[in-house]
Amino acid sequence: MASIKDVAAEAGLSVATVSRVLNGHPSVSEDARRRVTDAVERLGYRPNAVARSLRTDQTRTLGLVISDVMNPYFTELARSVEEEARALGYSVIIGNADERPDLQDHHVTTLLDRRIDGLLVSPTDGGSPGMLGAARAGTPMVFVDRWIPGVDVPVVRSDGTAAVRDLVAHLYGLGHRRLAIIAGPAATTTGRERVDAFRAALAAYGLELPDAYIGQGDFQAGSGRRVTEGFLDLAEPPEVVFAADNLMALGSLDAVRARGLRVPDDIGLAAFDDIPWFVHTDPPVTAIAQPVRDLGRAAVRALVDRIEGRPGESVTLPARLVVRRSCGEPETERPPSPSPVRRSTP
Amino acid sequence: MASIKDVAAEAGLSVATVSRVLNGHPSVSEDARRRVTDAVERLGYRPNAVARSLRTDQTRTLGLVISDVMNPYFTELARSVEEEARALGYSVIIGNADERPDLQDHHVTTLLDRRIDGLLVSPTDGGSPGMLGAARAGTPMVFVDRWIPGVDVPVVRSDGTAAVRDLVAHLYGLGHRRLAIIAGPAATTTGRERVDAFRAALAAYGLELPDAYIGQGDFQAGSGRRVTEGFLDLAEPPEVVFAADNLMALGSLDAVRARGLRVPDDIGLAAFDDIPWFVHTDPPVTAIAQPVRDLGRAAVRALVDRIEGRPGESVTLPARLVVRRSCGEPETERPPSPSPVRRSTP
DNA sequence: ATCCTCCGTGTAATCGATTCCACAAGGAGG
DNA sequence: CCTCCTTGTGGAATCGATTACACGGAGGAT
To answer: Which region ranges are annotated with the description Disordered (chains A, B) (predicted)?
Structure first.
């Protein structure tokens, strides 16, 4: 592969001049500029990003470590992050932690070894050593979705308390009183917050959240199934189950169906995180939707701000309730809406 | 951040010796080895992968350019690719082409600029200039899922002809005769092959595939909707629509529902690519499942073989039909099966 | 005409690793 | 006791870029 030296030779100039042309440095004669671009063209030369990074100490690359790629919520997040990063002239390398702290650490160290300019993390746990180290070492960093209290890093997330309140109001209005939740891991902020928000909302209606109605999940489908089975085995099963993420809701649906029961007639179901597929499930699932695209965009902007020396602030965006049929009859009969999967095509 | 020089100073040795210890070179005294590891420990030193790559001319990184991350099929492919690559000591950088040749080219050049060791591509089109250039330039390369005829690169893919035959047999057995297809872009191999396989299978039953029953889609939900609307407007609409990927099937479902019609009573639906959500849609969708994990694994192995100087061969794995309820009554009434989303949890 | 600027260019140092080659010390063999 | 090998180590070149500094020449001011 041709190097800058080859270009210099081909153009009959020094590597310094070639480099200047390549980087749009002002003090280069028109003649030299032309000769260099011609030589580049002839040789099909492309600058070696590795060498450039070594010299300039910046890779123009962002690392994104997410908890689970197979979760549509995170897939969409990753997509919007990449989009915004590209617009800002950065590439992104995605690491999938699969909800495992050890894998998360692996990716963090790998990314740091490659000297990425900044790190976007949605931590799987309360803080693995590798991650804490990275934060302390001064690598520009931003948390998305989940975060770790006590670590001084901007957080870009969505606040679901109002939406959860709306959800409880909706359920209460439908006559439901025994409401249960499938919680996420207590080590994650989203795991804890959603339970807290739910409990608080229930309290506003004079409802309790007994321990038996709090199932411990891990944000994966399997746990949703297991917890739901436990609920159904109760002497007095809940009337509605609220899953703290979409995968656990899926598992819950499975469990209900495996018993030959039906949603929402026998038991209602609601989920945190709305995804395109919830429109098409049987029945369509009532969910709390986060503004994922905006979250990704804001996270990248905050991180790039940090990288480029600007402050880089935390952002909290509200989530909102999307009522469908999985908890009982909706208020109004609307025509089916088109799938949100659709792109910009008219 | 500490460099190898700092380690050398701390250990009271030369950088050469430090490097040898780091790389497990045999001719290093036990004493030196200990002093170096101690120094590394004290300094929290991590080798700079950028510098290393520049010197050794290898990044131990694979590039993966896929057509659409939001498509669960590709998400799963990406996941299995990363998994296998990690097992083999490689990282992977994912580029999302979003079915756009220009974006695909952008990612290919970016990846090449970073001097990745090899490229895994599922081409969006018949071959964008950047990709063809990469193939010609001798970068180790392997096609996954889709490929480009005439380019001498191993292909790892799945063969759906048998499964499509099974599908048509299933539909024929259910009494359906007017069968339509929503095709993928003609520029992609999968776009063409699936139509061809479908036509051939129909022929085996003395059935035709009239032009009016071939809708041109682009593997995105929007086109599935549009094409299906066209089918429904026909004087004699098809009895079953076969979507060449899962996203278009989703769009098709939307369109049917938007008319107030029902699947499978008013019109049947089948899809290429099985995904976890098809179990939970209303109704569950009959689909052709590819062995995605195996595909990802095989692709990485072929690529790494190429990179490390071994031949690196093409692989074709069979797809299989998964019958559900979207085309009419299934043969047997089975208890609902658990969701395939489940991980290794028992 | 002289001096000072400014412009365009080239030389060489540098980033952080790897690795070839030289070399010193020590042991074996003659 | 001398030579030869082996072993462990260090010096320095190298990968491909960027950039500080030096320098020659053109042009303007005096």
So the answer is: 326-346
Compute the average pLDDT of residues A224-234: 97
Query: Residue B196: is its pLDDT beyond 80?
Result: yes
Residue B5: CB atoms within 10 A of its CB come to 11
Residue range B134-192, pLDDT digits in tens: 888 889 999 999 999 989 999 999 999 999 999 999 999 999 999 999 999 999 999 99
- How far apart are alpha carbons A321 and B319 in whole angstroms? 39
Taking the C-alpha atoms of residue B177 and residue B239, their distance in angstroms, rounded to an integer, is: 7
Query: Which residues in B lie closer than 8 A to residue A338 (C-beta atoms)?
Result: 225, 254, 258
Closest CA to A145 of A316, A309, A343, A321: A316
Which has the closest alpha carbon to B217: B231, B227, B207? B227
Q: Kindly determine whether the C-beta of residue A109 is less than 7 Å away from any atom of nucleic acid strand D.
A: no
Residue B344 has pLDDT above 60, yes or no: no
Contact B110 A94 (CB under 8 A): no
**Interchain CB contact of B87 with A (< 8 Å):** no
Candidate CATH numbers 3.50.50.60, 1.20.120.1460, 3.40.50.2300, 1.10.260.40; the one for domain A4-47 = 1.10.260.40
Class of domain A159-291: alpha beta
> A96–B75: do the CB atoms touch at under 8 Å?
no
